[in-house]
Amino acid sequence: MHSGTLDAVDRGFDVMKIRHDFPALDQMVHGKPLVYLDNAATSQKPQVVLDAINRYYRAGNANIHRGVHYLSEQATQEYEGAREKIRRFLNAASTKEIVFVRGATEGINLVASTFGRRRVRAGDEILISAMEHHSNIVPWQLLCEEKGAKLRVIPISDRGEIILEEYRKLLSERTRLVAVTHVSNALGTVNPVRQMIADAHRRSIPVLLDGAQAVPHFRVDVRDLDCDFYVLSGHKMFGPTGVGVLYGKETILEEMPPYQGGGDMIKSVTFERTIFNDLPYRFEAGTPHIAGGIGLGAAIDYLERLDWQGLSEYEGSLLDYATEALSGVKKLRIIGTATEKAGVISFVIEGVHPHDVGTVLDQEGIAVRTGHHCAQPVMQRYSIPATARASFALYNTQEEVDMLVAGVHKVIEIFG
Amino acid sequence: MSELRALYQEIILDHNKNPRNFKRLKDANRTVDGYNPLCGDHYTLFLKVEGDVISDIAFQGSGCAISKASASIMTSVVKGKTKAEAEKLFETFHKLVTGELGGNVTLEELGRLAAFAGVSEFPARVKCASLPWHTMRSALEAKTETVSTE
Q1: I want to staple A188 with a disulfide (CB 3.0 to 4.6 A). Which of A63, A341, A382, B97 is the partner?
Q2: Best mutation target, A29, A30, A359, to test chain B (most B CBs within 10 A)
Q3: For an interface test with A, which of B2, B14, B62, B64 has the most A Cβ atoms less than 10 Å from its Cβ?
């Protein structure tokens, strides 16, 4: 394990150098150095992102798309420049396919209330998996209730993997959409989305991927995957909160009705008739989160400069190292043991409630998430009320994993 | 570590491991659920109220050490008390865990409740400690819907 990490360093991924880019990592919590392992909830931000937001508000602040004055043109350029950076990052065909939203949650809601409202009828089915975040469950429940449609759930194995045979059985002429997570926030499973998309497309069923937990860990190419929709949240990929992206194939977005009404999403308005704007602006009513978009653009610039091969090897070896170290702890059980995983280790300790685990670790300066991780059906699947979850990002180290393991031993010592 | 020990005192760890009155009360005439959706703490409280007196009380369910110890100690403390006395204990406890008690109450008066003094240093855990108490108060008011500390 150790040599794997050193190899990654040799190849040019220097985690200590990366850590210097993230000012929030360098602080003490309860008198101990912060060990931030709650990255699946939100990641820390590199200085370049903070600078970009600061620069915009200090010197560039203006509304976009309408002004003829200098600042407005500058702001428009920077905001639209961020859209282009996102297009390139995801390898989308056109910026028309990149819709700014508040986050992955809003992206899914947008698809449910436009595509869903138009396409789904009574008796139709929406297919999701048993490991979805509430954000990829509730919008579909609301839609199904409204339309008299049915929400079907792909079961998962004890290891936390989608059972592909069951998935294929659930695909039918009634299925209007498959909506699954790319990477599970509660289990860390990387789903076989390429295979799932191919299966769905054989029946001409479109597929939405929730990529919130995927994009911070590996490169995603939406054209290579051939997904129809892809959603992500800026704040989980080292950008600001309140901004995210909905990618949709142009042909599908084109036929979707507007989401919210207001300024910027129209071409012309009279009291008799409104002509809607072109893609992607048709889905972006009102003044957007301009600083957020610019900040997300800066986060993508930051990510584009990294050696992704080295990063992915480093993160892989760190996850292996942490998995092995935690597996060695008596009374500790890892929830989610899929073959393909990214960034997340959920665990329970015999006889100790996860909330108590979280409090003890916090006193050691270690930030983990405890609870149901907005995925209550996953907890029900494993008959547990909650887990403790350590989630990793590109700036975490083996030393931090060692501190986590020491912290876990302290938990057991107190409650043993 | 000292703050941690102040939170997880021996008495709390003991009541977590060996909760008292941890059973279904067959002749209960008040039954109320308490639920904290944030962490999944979920308890059912059984009370036998005769006239003005809580003649018997017990609980079942699962949750963190703080909530379970709180339910255990609460049931031990309020058993045999009148409704008014239980209400007064509720108020004392609430002030204790939110750090609003001041110096007006002595440790002696607090008795076993004093074990929860450390909770006020952990704002995220106040809800855990107070869940059983809110549930009891609801039962005394003869309410039946699930109590939530969210």
Answers
A1: A341
A2: A359
A3: B64
Residue B150 covered by a domain: no
User: Does any domain span residue A42?
Assistant: no
CB neighbour burial string for A189-199, b if at least 16 within 10 angstroms, e if fewer:
bbbbbeebbeb
In a domain, A135, yes or no: yes
Its domain, for residue A372, covers 2-33+307-406
CATH number of the domain residue A354 falls in: 3.90.1150.10
Contact A385 B40 (CB under 8 A): yes
If asked whether residues A244 and A111 sit together in one domain, one would say yes
**In a domain? residue A272:** yes
- How do residues A34-47 score in pLDDT, each as one tens digit? 999 999 999 999 99
pLDDT in tens, A146-202: 999 999 999 999 999 999 999 999 999 999 999 999 999 999 999 999 999 999 999
Of chain B residues 25-64, which have a CB less than 8 A from chain A? 38-42, 62-64
* Mean pLDDT taken over chain B: 91
Set of chain B residues whose Cβ sits within 8 Å of the Cβ of A363: 1, 3-4
CA–CA separation, B39 and B41 (whole Å): 6
**Do A163 and A261 fall into the same domain?**
yes
